[in-house]
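Sharing a chain and its predicted structure for anyone who wants a worked example. Both blocks are below, sequence first, tokens second.
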Amino acid sequence: MSQDNDLHDVAARIEDLRAQINYHNQRYYVLDAPEISDAEYDALMEELRRLEAENPELITADSPTQRVGAAPVEAFGVVEHHTPMLSLGNVFSEEELMAWYKRTAALAGEQGFDFTCEIKMDGLAVALTYLNGKLVTGATRGDGYRGEDVTSNLRTVRSVPLTLSGTVPPRLEVRGEVFLSRDGFRRLNDQRAGEGLPLFANPRNAAAGSVRQLDPRITSQRPLDMFVYAAYAEGDNLPDRHWDRLEEMKRLGFKTNPYNKVCPSIEEVRDFYQEMLVSRESLPYEADGIVAKINSIPLQERLGHVGREPRWAVAYKFPPVQGTTLLERIEINVGRTGSLNPYAVLRPVSIGGVTIRHAALHNEDDIRRKDIRISDTVIVQRAGDVIPEIIGPVISKRTGNEKEFHMPASCPRCGSDIVRPPGEAMHRCTNAACPAQALEKLKHFVSRGAMDIDGVGEKLCAALLDAGLVQDVADLYYLADKRQQLLEMERMAEKSVARVLDSIEQSKGRPLDRLVFALGIPHIGAQTAEILAAHYRSLDNLSEASLEELQAIPSIGPKIAESIHAFFRQEGNRRIIDKLRRAGVRMEEARTPETAELPLAGREFVLTGKLESMTRPQAEERIKQFGGTTGSNVTRKTTHLVAGADPGSKLDKARSMDVTILSEEDFLKMLEEEGRT
């Protein structure tokens, strides 16, 4: 009886999962308006697969595990796919990748096959059919067997050839991914915002919505692109290797992804994944993993497929960067320049293994543009090390209890009036002595990219201000005279006080560009500070520069020039600089030898893997200080590869090109020796 009850519970759970997945398939494939992230959808599908595998008697032909996508919309007309457009199986770890490989090798009865690796783009899969070199049909994936006829729309995509030249099979079917670049997506949403139209949640939805327009003129106005990833022809008219087929498609005029790569072994597939994972945010389009395909077409055909998935290919997914959760409230952070920065307080959600509780909202205009409301269910994105941000609300989940956000009329920290200067998106506190601004300025001054004062973090900055030991950043350099008061502070014993004071003393010798950045001049980032320091060579020269002189410097526009000019004309800022000078803080750029005179001149370094003793930017800065240059990829110009822990495929490439390979220990030893030189 107990087993019957257990089976009944499993069957009920399977039916519930199928209902959820069918609902979300409709939202994703037909309405282009998903309510959950890809990772949440994958979790539902993985649970259903597992339960069906454990209870095969409960599998039905209409289960989502046996189908692809959703049924086509009849309004477009329906196209039958000659070869089913199957969906790929997913793996989420190196262990799962190796398990897939071992299963596939066992079925193939051989170990020696190679792969073509491709980036798994986040777009819309389509099939193009050519008869005697002319495009006759373009269709969406649909349910894998029948898709929507969107020929007229696909004809407007500029990377889709309408006619093929040269020797072409009588009937050719080409499959690919239609997508929007990150830049194209931003431009499209900016345009829609200007027209008062709802914004697309992500590039995939925008691409799908653009292709599935009933009016091709709308599609033609969208910056769509397409990469080809497969080709089929009647008879033996195409190469019998997948990579060679892609090369043949290039010859016929189709675009293929330049990142595609032949990987001779599963280990190189793994390396390709790691390389693309690191490069993920620098790609010009959204990607959610890589695809590994066995190159041999005969072997592909022999392996066939199981359910809706080919056995000869797999998608190795990147960690998720999106999730959905509840926006509980919107709070305000006051920045060092007095700007009021709204941020979202979220119901905690795990994204890519990190629990997210807050997300950036930028400004009131951005909140209005995205139509984000308090108590909304929202899509949250975490990409790389970027602060999480809200992409948009899930409007279909609104209950009517959501509230619009309004910027407060007074500063939440000091109660002073709030203004929004003409032409600016930010609201600002009018009180220059606002305690929130003082704390943010102090935190910025001591941060790693600025004066890098070790041991002085946010809590100590706040404690120093509360105790009245500092009122501005220059007061840090006079704390040695208040040693006893420091010792009386909570958690400040003799050793910690000595360490803090020593770190403050060491910071006096930081390069000029670090001081310029640390001063917190509005609109001045680290790169602009480097340009200013190199140009003026001293803080006095910079402070006396006219507007005209500043604007004459390349990359210094009118807004930045006005900000610099205004900063140095404020009496309070001049007093702080004078206090810094009297404390012995370096105000001039040290004379540096010509690059050609430096010990690493003429050498180009590439870094791979994780370094233990320093971050990658710190290592690159050290190389540049000694006159060397850095590159992101191993090329003929590369002279040295610095290999940290878990190096990627760059190490093999460096070995094949006879590049000098340095361990982290070798690299540090080189810097030490060259430093003595």
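Comments welcome. Residues 322-419 form a domain with the OB fold (Dihydrolipoamide Acetyltransferase, E2P) fold (CATH 2.40.50.140).
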